[in-house]
Amino acid sequence: MSPTRTVRTPTEILRDIKIRIDYCHIQVDRKRASRGERRPVQLELPAPKTHGGKRKGAGRPKTDHAGALHCARPLLASRFPIHVTLKAREDAPRFRRKRSCDVLRHVMAAGCDKETFRLCHFSIQPGHVHLICEARDTVSLSRGVQGLAIRMARALNREWDRRGPVWADRYHARHLKTPTQTRSAIVYVLGNFRHHGGEKTSPMCIDEASSAYWFTGYREEDDLPKPPDIPRPVADARTWLLSAGWIRAGGLISMAERPRS
After folding, report:
1. What range does the domain containing 182 cover?
2. Which of 53, 77, 137, 181 has the most CB atoms at less than 10 Å from its CB?
């Protein structure tokens, strides 16, 4: 008759394994002690001092002239125009010079009317450029403005035989969601030269470095000078706000109307 085998539970098996492991450790310790060896001790790694993690003084230095915030831009609906501002670096060529104006208007004429992006108004000032655009969505706006900014920077560098960046920061964008906002933006962009040395000019004049030549919303349309013989640097507006809706907020615009500060 064969002896009866005792069935062991998993707990008993693990306990026996642990006992054997502990016995092995004891034997190893005895051998090391007989040879004068010390048991190794696990050391902790010191915290990094220069790289990684949030710490005081890290990141780009803060300045008093902060540009556009580096955060996610709000979603754009295709029915809203956008007022975009591009600011130049201090060492960039001045945009109001004739050579710079001609170059910028040539670039705008080549990229003003795309399938998903349109440039409808602009104003060129010495150190920045104002644009009023239309885009299908946020991605189309970013690609359209960035592509236009890159082509303008390359053209300016080529014209002035220079290298390096032209723009100081990413572009600033403001969505125009009401007729009042849209009309105010048009007045501000087309009359922006009055804030930058044009205060003493005649009230009934337009800015030659803007899209005022091609603007059809002036009350004095018959008194407008003839536009220069160059390719048209702006596209016709398609959104309701930029094509007709802004008129509801105050009627047609006078050439003598000054933008708000």
Report:
1. 82-249
2. 181
Q: What is the CATH number of the domain that holds 195?
A: 3.30.70.1290
In a domain, 12, yes or no: no
pTM: 0.72
In three-state form (DSSP H/G/I as H, E/B as E, the rest C), the secondary structure along the chain is CCCCCCCCCHHHHHHHHHHHHHHHHHHHHHHHHHCCCCCCCCCCCCCCCCCCCCCCCCCCCCCCCCCCCCCCCCCCCCCCCEEEEEEECCCCCCCCCHHHHHHHHHHHHHHCECCCEEEEEEEECCCEEEEEEEECCHHHHHHHHHHHHHHHHHHHHHHHCCCCCCECCCCEEEECCCHHHHHHHHHHHHCHHHHCCCCCCCCCCCCCCEHHHHCCCECCHHHCCCCCCCCCCCCCCCCHHHHCHHHHHCCCECCCCCCCC
pLDDT tens, N- to C-terminus, the chain (261 residues): 556 666 677 777 778 777 777 767 666 666 666 666 666 777 787 766 666 667 777 776 665 555 666 677 778 899 999 999 999 999 999 999 999 999 999 999 999 998 899 999 999 999 999 999 999 999 999 999 999 999 999 999 999 999 999 999 889 999 999 999 999 999 999 988 877 665 666 667 888 889 999 999 999 887 788 888 999 999 999 999 999 999 999 899 998 888 776
